Amino acid sequence: MGLALDFERNFHYYKKKTKLPELFGTYCFTNLINIIIIILSSYVILNVFSFDINKLLFLIIVSHNGLLSLRAYFLTGLKFEYRIKHYVLLNILDSILLFSLGLFFIVILNKGIVGVALSQLLSNTLTFGIYILVFNKYKLTFPTLKSVKNLNASCAKLIPRIFVSQAEKSSDKLFLNSINRKEGVGLLAISSKFSNLMLLITSVFENVFLPKIYEILDNEKNTNSAGSQISKLILPFVYYNVLVAILIIIFGYIYVQYFLGPMYYKVTNLLIFSVTSYSLLLFGKVPILIYKKKYKLLSLLSVLNFAIYILILLPFVYLFEEMGAVIAALLATTLNFFIYLHHTQKEVYVNWNLKLIGLFYCFLLAISFVISNTQADKLDNAPSFALILFLFASYVAVGLKNNYFEHLSKFKKNS
């Protein structure tokens, strides 16, 4: 993951210098060397300490992750060169292959968990092979050992950030399990089905604006001018992001209230906090610290963010159980947003127009408040539904007034 972030950071620069084969060669061969080292060292450790695990399964999983990281460089190339049709086609093909192979290995051959891992590895291998044969236009050049060493040394600073992000994903469920709130874990799992949509949409937006931001940062030597351009580019995406969050909350409410029933009404409040929290992650997708190669600072901020999250999570989970978990996530994400903003503004000043962003989130909070106080089994819901519709229409009007939908049409091809 550290190499992938550094690759994205350097892509536009190497493209300007017409040195993309050198870029691909350096990162692919560095990654390949790292994969071989991990496989060999893991094999030695497994044999020396005699761990009771399926070695074949372990080898398949490591190979799959290694190939996935190699494929990521070429997919990034498609994305950053705006070859979006090819990018989408390969991802759809990968999903179809994964589903088909999964059925074959799991249902027909009854291979169980090994079948899952094999289907992932083979679908990834086939997709990568199709890319190399059909879409690839780069002839890779071999890097020097010195460049491999320097690249690993530079990206090693991002390792704490990667571990912390993985640990953060399951902290809430672990704490709920520790107080025997298995019901809460189940409710959070249902809520995450909706909130994960927010993560997915945020990633889609990132795929659209990220290449353009790197292009701006590479082309503009004046940081104030770069910041101004980034502001104009990113603000409409903040609007779309909040719009999607509102829609997910509304449709999530409808699903919970009308299809799951009274036992699950609590899920509505859980998804409101989760979706709002995930919507704030868009601001961290603006790669100013990555562009400035502040990798050590990024890792330190990740560790600090995780510490803040745990410090808030512990008392909130014990006091408010699953509701405490999502409230803690929102509070920690909001606090971390301002910490991140403070450090990025020192590097490149971006006029975020916090008043306007605050207005966007006021609409989100107002709609969420009405929804959380409206239950489907009550007969007097018409005024509440009318108010939700009015607030939603008002939010759309704000977008029309600021020409955000016109901005969206400019990015239609990339979206």
Explained architecture:
This protein is mainly alpha-helical. Helix content is 83%, strand content 0%. It has 16 helices and no strands. Helix 1 packs antiparallel against helix 2. The longest helix is centred in the C-terminal third of the chain and has 53 residues. The radius of gyration is 23 Å and the shape is globular. The mean pLDDT is 80.
List the helices and strands and how they pair.
Blueprint: H1 2-16, H2 20-49, H3 55-80, H4 84-108, H5 112-135, H6 145-155, H7 159-169, H8 171-178, H9 182-219, H10 223-260, H11 266-279, H12 288-291, H13 295-347, H14 354-372, H15 382-401, H16 404-410
Helix pairs in contact: 1-2, 1-3, 1-9, 2-3, 2-6, 3-5, 4-5, 7-13, 8-9, 8-13, 9-10, 9-11, 10-11, 10-14, 10-15, 10-16, 11-13, 11-14, 14-15
Largest sheet: none
Total number of helices: 16
- What proportion strand? under 5%
SSE succession = HHHHHHHHHHHHHHHH
Q: Tell me the radius of gyration.
A: 23 Å
Calculate the mean pLDDT score and round it.
Answer: 80
What is the percent of helical residues? over 70%
Overall structural class, as computed from helix and strand content, comes to mainly alpha
